[in-house]
Write a structure and sequence with these properties.
This is 4Fe-4S ferredoxin-type domain-containing protein. The chain is of the alpha/beta class. The chain is built from 13 helices and 13 strands. Helix content is about 40%, strand content about 15%. Strand 12 and strand 13 (about 385-390) form a beta hairpin.
């Protein structure tokens, strides 16, 4: 009861702070607010949970960044609180070196990303050169899996080398982090004592395009999903093997690819040209995401991606794109979050365009000019792979710009 009373006091305190900051009026710029959820917290009759979630809904309805993390409630064990992560690609899995599920003070030490479409096209061209166009599809898939497995092992070797180099540095390389206890486990002597609790991440890019190359459909189809799971299982199995073998936290990483989505595609097009449904854009699709141009509902997108997020232990996200009008329909917002949590999505986000008139403060999805006062000085915020930017056309390369522009709204629910 004492802990419940403390939480109630915090809820009241948070509501007062939000009111003072005028959160429920106009647009609020906040890098990231994360609501940590267990499966019962938004469905039971507990007054604290209900009040907190209601407060959260009211607040995030004016935010651009809506993040939901499906984790257990705060668990107090020997005075250690298990905190959630504050970023989709900084998630840490179970620590093999003693901290178990503790998140606070750990991080993604070094990642490397495998560009899967390149491996798929290399495999396919070699088979066509050897056997002609009448090849067996299973033979193609088998050869791709062998090449991918080889690259995963190469990625492991690269990460081990990079990890050793990072560990060879002195604490002065990140003096603030080590002197102020930011890195959990630091013994004051060797930074390896802290870094061994972090993640060595093996990432991937372009699952959708990879499937198109191999079987001419993506994971929005039953056939595509079957192969997608086979690919993701390979990543997961190898990372688990490496974790046990080297006593380091290897994990599957669903790469955000802010720049790589464009640079990898550019190189691909130089070598293989523009191929319909594969390289006829300026970017590769991020990790296991559904291609952004495919029309579907929020629940359909969640249904697809939730089948794959469980393979990742080093960072992933599932998101849906909604119209700005969702701020007037908080019940719909809640139903979407509930659905994602029921599907065991570990990290969920809702993207909403939120423009603001700099003259009168009107907030919504605004076209050329403010419908209230006619002003054309509009501040436009968009969430792009976790970042808020006032003008994504200057903040990101042309590939990521095109990806943002091609995003459809998953609006029917």
């Amino acid at each position: 009861m004492r802990e419940i009373k403390k939480i109630k006091e915090k809820v009241d305190e948070l509501e007062n702070v939000l009111k003072d900051r005028d959160l429920f009026k106009g647009m609020v710029i906040q890098k990231e607010l994360l609501y940590m959820i267990d499966k019962l917290s938004i469905k039971n009759e507990d007054e604290v949970d209900e009040n907190l979630f209601l407060l959260w809904k009211r607040g995030v309805s004016r935010q651009v960044n809506y993040i939901y993390d499906r984790n257990p409630k705060y668990i107090f064990v020997k005075d250690i609180t298990y905190f959630s992560t504050m970023g989709c690609r900084t998630a840490n899995g179970w620590d093999i070196n003693g901290f178990e599920q503790l998140k606070d003070g750990r991080g993604n030490i070094c990642p490397v990303t495998i560009i899967m479409p390149t491996l798929a096209i290399e495999t396919k061209e070699k088979i066509i050169n050897d056997l002609g166009v009448n090849y067996d599809e299973k033979y193609l898939i088998g050869n791709f899996i062998k090449l991918l497995d080889k690259k995963i092992h190469e990625a492991k070797d690269m990460l081990l080398e990079r990890f050793e180099w990072i560990c060879s540095q002195s604490a002065d390389s990140a003096k603030f982090m080590y002197e102020n206890g930011v890195m959990e486990g630091y013994d004051g002597k060797d930074i390896r004592s802290a870094l061994k609790h972090g993640t060595l991440a093996i990432g991937q890019l372009g699952l959708a395009e990879t499937l198109q190359i191999l079987i001419k459909c993506d994971h929005t189809t039953e056939k595509g999903m079957e192969l997608a799971k086979q690919i993701e299982q390979l990543f997961k199995d190898r990372c688990n093997e490496f974790k046990k073998q080297y006593k380091l936290n290897f994990g599957v990483y669903y790469t955000p690819a802010e720049n790589l989505c464009f640079t990898a595609m550019k190189k691909f097009q130089e070598n293989y040209g523009e191929i319909p449904n594969i390289s006829d854009k300026k970017y590769f699709t991020n990790s296991i995401h559904v291609p952004v141009w495919i029309n579907m509902t929020p629940t359909q997108k969640i249904d697809i991606e939730s089948q794959l997020t469980g393979y990742s232990s080093a960072g992933c996200i599932t998101y849906v794109e909604l119209e700005g009008s969702v701020k007037n329909n908080l019940d719909a917002l809640e139903s979407i979050v509930n659905y994602a949590m029921d599907k065991d999505v570990p990290y969920f986000a809702i993207n909403v365009p939120n423009d603001m008139c700099t003259n009168c403060g009107y907030c919504d999805d605004i076209n050329m000019e403010c419908p209230m006062c006619g002003c054309n000085e509009i501040r436009r915020l968009r969430r792009v792979t976790g970042y808020l930017t006032g003008d994504y056309k200057s903040a990101f390369n042309s590939g990521k710009q095109q990806e943002v522009e091609m995003r459809v709204k998953h609006q029917k629910f």
